[in-house]
Structures are given as C-alpha cells and as structure tokens.
Hints:
Strand order of the largest sheet: 1-2
Shape: rod-shaped
Distance between the termini: 60 Å
Structural class: alpha+beta
Order of helices and strands: HEEH
Helix content: 25-40%
Amino acid sequence: MKIETLKDLEAMLKVCRKQGVTSISVDGIVLAIGDAPDTGKPKTEESIPVEGGYTDEDIMFWSSTDRV
C-alpha cells in the first residue's frame, strides 16, 4: 500500500481506529495509532442529559436556588 496524499493517510487511520489497530507499518514507516482527538463540544453541566428531564418548577427556580 502506498500513501500519496493526506486524504489517503486520514482514511487509513480512520479504518485502523475503527478496527482497533494500535500500530501499523506502511512504506517503511511505523506509526503508533492513538485515539482520535475529541473535537466535540466540551461537556458541561447543562449538556449532560438528565433522566426524566426538568419539571416546570425546576426551570422556574433554577437561577434562584442557593448553591452551596
């Protein structure tokens, strides 16, 4: 296999990660493959889903509750 473009390399890395491959040798180069970087939105308290959701009363008093 010959990798000629960055797009080829990205496709190969994607397949390797999907299949659980941790290292590979291509064209005489040995690569250690780690997890893909997490480029998603950071998880905050607001983005964590709550089972059952919030009641109208929870929403109404959200900013007025004392948080100690």
